[in-house]
């Protein structure tokens, strides 16, 4: 593993690796779901490059190895935030942009990859390039959601929007997947998501700087939080998993993006066969309707639902191999109705940066 501290060091590694046909893979915090950050070649530990270079009114420029927590901590003092944050903040900017990055606000603001003004990257040929929607567009489109196979993102200029001070988080039960997905489209909320657990389907609708729940929602639970506490809501769960030893267990997640019109039947059919051993004690099942935006490598339907089986292969549950087989079956079924795996399956590297 190499831990570069500069773009020049990345260039050196890539060019030297090319002479020996050695694979080079960028690695952020190591949270890839199918082992994408693992390689028999050279892993580039991007956590050596974590600088937040500049915060403006509508944008921020950051190193790809910075986490979304580090970005948010840099922008909140200016009253700004990225439009889309992942549920778990300790993921790198380069890592989630390479997958696309879906969050609770993606029904409004699309994916994280759709909120990028500019990228700097090192291509497979070792060339340092800058690309954007108006300059070297093809490379820009293949880096975003390209799973790192078309170059190593080194810096990103990201869109910013005004940040709220407080949020009102509301939970409500739904009778079915169809009702949950319909509610996610009908309810007007700044952040919206859903999950399935032992109690059934649950909708979470969050409104910013509001004193009452969204119109049309009769919540069973309402909680007021500071915005940062809400954004960092996964931390207590993660600390618990670390304490129990479950955080270090393999997590072979199975995630698919489905056409919204066909998602409910697909989800209900899948859940009918799911057992606790399929998911694991610390696993989650998430359901979220969202808009992908213009991210060609994601290849997602325009009106989409992400269905995520966030498996944890703990002792007493199915093995990693069994969970991976189940994920492959999930991908095949999703593709049969026009869905796609998430993160996107890598495609061969570009030979030219254009």
Automatic annotation (TrEMBL):
Keywords recorded for this protein, A-Z: FAD, Flavoprotein, Oxidoreductase
Claim: Flavoprotein is one of the keywords in the record: yes
Gene Ontology biological process terms in this record: cytokinin metabolic process
GO molecular function: cytokinin dehydrogenase activity; FAD binding
Cofactor(s), names only, from the UniProt record: FAD
A Pfam family it matches: FAD_binding_4
InterPro entries, A to Z: Cytok_DH_C_sf, Cytokinin_DH_FAD/cytokin-bd, FAD-bd_PCMH, FAD-bd_PCMH-like_sf, FAD-bd_PCMH_sub1, FAD-bd_PCMH_sub2, FAD-linked_Oxase-like_C, FAD-linked_Oxidoreductases_BP
Taxonomic superkingdom: Bacteria
Annotated ranges, domain FAD-binding PCMH-type: 1-163
Family statement drawn from the similarity comment of this UniProt entry: Belongs to the oxygen-dependent FAD-linked oxidoreductase family.
Name by which UniProt lists this protein: FAD-binding PCMH-type domain-containing protein
Lineage, uppermost ranks: Bacteria, Bacillati, Actinomycetota, Actinomycetes, Mycobacteriales
